[in-house]
Amino acid sequence: MALRLEDKKAIVADVNETAASALSLVIADARGCTVGEMTTLRKLARENQVDMRVVRNTLAKIALKGTDFECAEEAFKGPSLLAFSMEDPGAAARLFKDFAKEHKNFEVKALAVSGQLMGSEQLDVLAKLPTREQALSMLMSVMQAPVTKLVRTMNEVPSKLVRVVAAVRDQKEAA
Known about the structure:
By secondary structure, this protein is α+β, with helices and mostly antiparallel strands. 55% of the residues lie in helices and 15% in strands. Helix 1 packs across helix 3. It is elongated.
């Protein structure tokens, strides 16, 4: 069924708005996946704040003009499934990586982050990025380490004094 011009404009505007606020884009080819598998993937995408869409390549190229993902234009060959990570840059990459392990027909074509197009071999790099919560916990542990060490050092001085006094007491009692 052909799309009317108004429908095409609405699709372009919607994808452009999504791309403007997204952190990363992963493009995949889902030929050979069943409807049930795609439904499962869409459900997982919603749970991980990943905006997934199937858009015609010409409309996607127009929609991504003027965004950080304009560099992905050359990846639009054949059927394309777009996944925009909205809160965590690695969310779409992790989702597609896990899905591709279980479904051999699913193929990641390219990914784009901050205006740079990367090949599908870079999927692991993006997928291994820590989530916001993980990054904050790592930062907090790094910030906490010097304070913890200072407290242990400060606590050691009175402890040594108590041990010395106890040793002197024991020595005098024994004598």
